[in-house]
Design goal:
Blueprint lengths: L2 E7 L2 H13 L7 E6 L24 H15 L4 E5 L3 E6 L2 H8 L7 H8 L4 H12 L3 E7 L4 H9 L6 H10 L134 H7 L1
Antiparallel strand pairs: 1-5, 2-4, 2-5, 3-4
Helix pairs in contact: 1-2, 3-4, 4-5, 5-7
């Protein structure tokens, strides 16, 4: 059963990364929608009438980053274009949600954007929060995911700092907000002064600290060992005797016999035996190193010019 996964982001770049990661993970780009507030025309100006990125309009600095983001979204989303939404004003919109918005612009009293979100299964109160979040400059990403991929979609979308819409909605209500008003005038365009600060990012890389080379070679060592050998030797002894001959003496018969003399000689054999093993491995030691650097930050100061005497008096 398809499920709708939805998240609101403060920055379009975060939303663009979410969309790219969803597509890379195999989600159908035809089922991914995006709505980004564009009241200052900072995004749609990079699109032609055919909703293609205008390279000539992408300038250095901030413009280049906006143009790059729009170009990246054009490559992964279906039907990216500019649209005026009641209560929000100019917006960058893509995906199947376009049909719901354009079809409901003159429909329900809650307004096209809220009605379209409710139609996808979002509770109406949450839809009001999301619509107001877009009105205040946020970017909404909606993906229709099969049930077996919904958890993966939620994990991807949670990675990129989504706004806690219920906490934000409670803050708006505490400030007097009554709900999204499709008939309200869009917020006026704003002049934005970026506050830039450097963040320290410390990574790690492997470097060689030396090598160990292992050689296996053969050495020869002279050895000697003593062995006792036996040797047989025939002894001939003549003993004088004076007695009468008997039959056993076989007198006057010719005969002969042989006696074998044996001796032992050394026999040398060699057997290769493992008498020692040399084991080569590596130990990993960890150490903590303190990295020091200097980070820069730009701040924006605002001061009143041409103050009246009354203003100066009130500030004392």
């Amino acid at each position: 059963m398809p499920r709708t996964i939805i998240a609101l982001y403060k920055e379009l770049t975060d939303a663009q990364h979410v969309v790219q990661h969803l597509v890379d993970a195999g989600f159908d780009r035809q089922k991914i929608s995006l709505i980004a507030n564009d009241r200052s025309n900072q995004y749609s100006k990079y699109l032609t009438s055919e909703n293609r990125v205008v390279d000539d309009d992408v300038k250095a600095g901030e413009g280049a980053s906006f143009g790059a983001v729009v170009g990246a979204l054009t490559g992964v989303l279906a039907g990216l274009g500019a649209l005026a939404i009641p209560g929000i004003g100019a917006a960058l919109v893509a995906g199947p949600i376009i049909g719901g918005i354009t079809g409901a612009l003159t429909g329900a009293a809650t307004g096209g954007i809220v009605a379209s979100l409710v139609k996808t299964g979002v509770p109406e109160e949450d839809a009001q929060f999301y619509a107001e979040g877009i009105r205040r400059g946020g970017t909404l990403v909606v993906v229709n995911a099969d049930d077996n991929m919904a958890d993966q979609a939620n994990e991807i979308m949670s990675r990129h700092n989504p706004i806690d819409i219920h906490s934000q909605g409670a803050s708006w209500r505490a400030s007097g907000w009554k709900g999204f008003d499709a008939n309200a005038k869009p917020l006026e365009g704003q002049t934005v002064f970026p506050v830039v600060e450097e963040q320290l990012q410390v990574g790690k890389r492997e470097v060689e600290q030396g090598r160990v080379r292992v050689f296996q070679h053969v050495t020869e060592t002279p050895v000697e060992e003593q062995v006792t050998l036996r040797q047989e030797k025939v002894n001939v002894e003549r003993r004088p005797v004076n007695r009468a001959a008997t039959d056993e003496d076989q007198a006057f018969k010719e005969t002969s016999f042989e006696i074998t003399q044996k001796s032992e000689e050394p026999v040398v054999t060699k057997q290769a035996r493992v008498v020692e093993e040399v084991v080569i491995d590596k130990n990993v030691e960890e150490k903590t190193k303190t990295v020091r650097d200097t980070l820069r930050r730009t701040d924006v100061d605002v001061e009143n010019v041409n103050q009246t005497d009354e203003d100066k008096k009130n500030r004392r």
